[in-house]
């Protein structure tokens, strides 16, 4: 009887250790928590939100990424331009390689677009000095275009600086959601 109890206890200790190691690996290398500072991604992600970041997916247009800039700061921004793209905004309209592209994630922000220009006119060629975004580079903007420090001020982001993609807002609980 005593041996059976010890076997059960030992079994549970092993299970707890394995689960704890699994959780540590997941948290450290696959699903990394990040606190958001600043208002540049509002209303998609708000200041002091905590997001889960993953670092194994391919970067696509409009993904929300977490990266470290050359000044050492960590930013959360949306990918607008991919390598080989030419990005242009004219009268609040995004054009990628000359084609009009909708930005549905800005619908809630641009309600008053007749009252002011949300995204000022820009041409990536003027900002980065080349017609197309170079290989392994990304053009990023904050969703709150009027308050965002992004590729308009610091240029494109090298793929090696990207830490991962923001996937889920998990705190505060009332703001929990999947990042789109």
TrEMBL record:
User: What is annotated as the active site?
Assistant: 40, 77
Q: Which UniProt keywords apply?
A: Hydrolase, Membrane, Protease, Transmembrane, Transmembrane helix
Q: Would you tell me the Gene Ontology cellular component terms? A: plasma membrane
Whether Transmembrane helix counts among this entry's keywords is yes
- Coiled-coil ranges per UniProt: none
Where is this chain primarily localised? membrane
Species per Swiss-Prot/TrEMBL record: Vagococcus carniphilus
Molecular function terms, GO-annotated: serine-type endopeptidase activity; signal peptidase activity
Query: Could you tell me the gene encoding this protein?
Result: lepB
| Entry-linked PROSITE patterns | SPASE_I_2, SPASE_I_3
Residue ranges annotated for the Peptidase S26 domain, each copy included: 10-171
The Gene Ontology biological process annotation of the record reads:
signal peptide processing
Q: Does the keyword Protease apply?
A: yes
Q: How is this protein situated with respect to the membrane?
A: Single-pass type II membrane protein
Question: Where is the chain membrane-spanning?
Answer: 12-32
**Lineage, broadest ranks:** Bacteria, Bacillati, Bacillota, Bacilli, Lactobacillales
E.C. code: 3.4.21.89
- Name this polypeptide is given: Signal peptidase I
Similarity comment: Belongs to the peptidase S26 family.
**From which domain of life does this come?**
Bacteria
Q: Which InterPro entries match?
A: LexA/Signal_pep-like_sf, Pept_S26A_signal_pept_1, Pept_S26A_signal_pept_1_CS, Pept_S26A_signal_pept_1_Lys-AS, Peptidase_S26
Q: Which Pfam families match?
A: Peptidase_S26
| Entry-linked SUPFAM superfamilies | LexA/Signal peptidase
Say which enzyme class the record assigns. Answer: hydrolase
Q: Where in the cell is it found?
A: Cell membrane; Membrane
Reaction catalysed by this chain?
Cleavage of hydrophobic, N-terminal signal or leader sequences from secreted and periplasmic proteins
């Amino acid at each position: 009887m005593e041996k059976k109890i010890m076997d059960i206890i030992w079994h549970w200790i092993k299970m707890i250790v394995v689960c704890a190691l699994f959780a540590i690996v997941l948290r450290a290398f696959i699903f990394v928590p990040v606190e958001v500072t600043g208002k540049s991604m509002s209303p998609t992600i708000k200041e002091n939100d905590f997001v889960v970041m993953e670092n194994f997916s391919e970067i696509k247009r409009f993904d929300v990424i977490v990266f470290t800039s050359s000044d050492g700061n960590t930013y959360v921004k949306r990918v607008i331009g991919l390598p080989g793209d030419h990005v242009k905004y004219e009268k609040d309209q995004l054009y990628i390689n000359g084609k009009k592209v909708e930005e549905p994630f800005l619908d809630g922000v641009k309600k008053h677009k007749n009252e002011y220009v949300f995204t000022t006119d820009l041409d990536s060629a003027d900002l980065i000095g080349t017609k197309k975004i170079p290989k392994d580079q990304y053009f990023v903007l904050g969703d709150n275009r009027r308050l965002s420090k992004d590729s308009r001020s610091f240029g494109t982001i090298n793929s090696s600086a990207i830490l991962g993609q923001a996937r889920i807002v998990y705190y505060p609980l009332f703001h929990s959601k999947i990042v789109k």
